[in-house]
Amino acid sequence: MPPKTHHTAVVAIPPLEVWEPIQALRRQHDRNVHRWMPHITLLYPFLPQTSFDTALPALLAVGHRLAPMALTFTTVRAFSHARGNATLWLAPEPPAPLVTLQAALQAAFPDYNEQARFHSGFTPHLSIGQTRSPAERQQLLQNLRAAWQPLQCTLHAVALIWRTADGPFQVAHNIPLSGHSA
User: Fold this and answer.
1) Class of residue 100 by CB neighbours under 10 A (exposed 0-12, middle 13-18, buried 19+)
2) What is the spatial distance between Cα 8 and Cα 10, in angstroms, rounded to a whole number?
3) Beta bridge partners of 80
4) Starting from the edge strand earliest in sequence, which strands make up the sheet with 40-43, in order?
5) Given the DSSP bridges, would you call strands 69-80 and 86-93 parallel, antiparallel or unpaired?
6) What is the Cα–Cα distance from 152 to 18, expressed in whole angstroms?
């Protein structure tokens, strides 16, 4: 089994110009706001940082095959977890290009399949917070859905990111999505 670390990942990072409404929610509800930038996780955990140079050609090949994608973060949804906990997330639409991107990355790195191991497969999402009870989840979902304004952006790259033991994630490499739409 190849090495895996929670100190690296391959993610889709929305452009900086759309961060503020996302970060406003994350500052209120996400205990990981200082560790992670706004992102959609594609491969995590991933290879150790010492293997980035080896992984880069395969990542670039995936990026070369896939086109930039227009996304709209349309609404707030939740994943329910054990003991009533939940993760709140923004839903990117359409999800199909992100599902295709994640599948291509996973095909290039088949041992890093944690994002697609659920019975429903990979669900593209941008986490914005956590709740500790079903009642809190329902109330927060209702409030956030009422206030959320759809947010549009174009994803032109995916990022290979890393962090130190206690530090925030940083971008090591941006992998351009340079293919053409069908």
Assistant:
1) middle
2) 7
3) 86
4) 40-43, 8-12, 157-162, 170-176
5) antiparallel
6) 8
- List Cβ neighbours of 23 (8 Å cut-off, separation of 6 or more): 33, 38
Domain residue limits, the chain: 8-72+91-128+154-176
Residue pair 45/3 in contact by the 8 Å Cβ criterion: no
Q: What is the CATH architecture of 8-72+91-128+154-176? A: Alpha-Beta Complex (3.90)
Do residues 49 and 148 lie in contact, with contact meaning Cβ atoms separated by under 8 Å? no
Q: 23-78: per-residue pLDDT in tens? A: 999 999 999 999 999 999 999 999 999 999 999 999 999 999 999 999 999 999 99
Give the whole-angstrom CA distance, residue 112 versus residue 115.
8
Query: Which H/E stretch holds residue 106?
Result: helix 96-108
Return d(Cα 80, Cα 34) in angstroms, integer: 23
Is residue 128 within 8 A of residue 90, CB to CB? The reply is yes
Dump pLDDT digits (tens) for 133-144: 999 999 999 999
Predicted TM-score (pTM) of the model is 0.96
Q: What angle do CA 172, 51, 46 make, to 5 degrees?
A: 75
pLDDT value at 2 more than 80: no
By the 8 A CB rule, do 10 and 18 touch? no
